[in-house]
Amino acid sequence: MNAPFEEDGWKRAMELVAGATGSGAVHLAAIGGPMMMPLDIFVGREAHRVDEVFSAPELCGEGNWRLRAVGDLMTIQHERHYAEARKRGGTSAYDDAVSMLDMQLGCQSTLISDQHNFLGLALIRGRREGATDDVVYGRFAHLLHHVQRAVRVQLAMDGEAAEVMLGELATVDCRVILLDRHGCLSAVSSRAEALLDEVGPARLEGLSVALRNRDENRQLHQAMGRLLAKSAHAPVVHQMRAGRTACAPHGRWKLSLIRLPDRPHGLGFDPALAISFQPLAQQPAAFEAGQALH
Question: Looking at the domain that runs over 3-155, which CATH code has it been given?
Fold first, then answer.
């Protein structure tokens, strides 16, 4: 698949998967991550209604039997597994939603998985397409490996983009941490590594970065959500102080959170945010904490 190399490549790739398997829709989704910002590529019939219908929290949690049925890496779950997942009860809201959209059938598999996230591919089928038969199962199993390879290529390209960016920043001797669109760590400059030590203002938390001061960390993650929002009015820079302690009540660092330019295509794992740290002078700095620039 050429998805990583073409504009709208992933959308077109999912359309090809839908056509090859005779499925009404295909869903490529990543769920998890410290920012809980899912990757969500849905193509096919009723695509214009999916976001609206499934915006309710109860349809994306324990009551979603597709999520309950998630299995081991590269194994395929289908209607039999969905039926088993329903037996635990509490799925009536999800049942009603998929029945209304005629999306009760299909199969799915996990492409990439760790303790914090998973990236999965699902064929969405209904009464008009019928259940997953041997032909559909075989085609899905074949395509699954192609999609997984394309995802790994995309991740490698996004990782290379982060390293190239850090290489450019190294020439100006910056303390910079790069995050992707899901809030996960992309890269850390050599000078920023010390900031993650026990005495530094930040620490690793799962796949992302957190500030040690609880109030500062809450402010940082709220700002990350605003900068990553898909809005023409979203800010591009957020500045604040970090590293407050009893000995440094005004903080030790000026932190700048910067939204990076979007790439024309990809899955969102390339650098999307840069966190820059600059040491503050001993006297209080002139700027106000929490300043957002557009």
Answer: 3.30.450.80
Report CA 91 to chain centroid distance, whole Å.
25
Distance between alpha carbon 125 and the CA centroid of its chain, in Å?
A: 25
Measure the CA–CA gap between 119 and 121, rounded to whole angstroms: 7
- Count of Cβ atoms closer than 10 Å to residue 44 Cβ: 20
CA distance linking residue 70 with residue 63, whole number of Å = 13
Domain boundaries, the chain: 3-155, 173-293
Predicted confidence (pLDDT) per residue in 17-40, tens digit: 999 999 999 999 877 654 444 567
CATH class name, domain 173-293 = alpha beta
CB atoms within 10 A of CB 135: 10
pLDDT digits (tens, 9 = 90+) for 231-247: 667 778 899 999 998 88
The secondary structure of the chain in percent helix, strand, coil, rounded to multiples of 5, reads 35, 25, 35
Q: Give the C-alpha separation, 33 to 208, whole Å.
A: 8
pTM: 0.63
Length of the chain: 294
Q: Which residues pair with 161 in a beta bridge?
A: none
| Euclidean distance between CA atoms 192 and 202, whole angstroms | 10
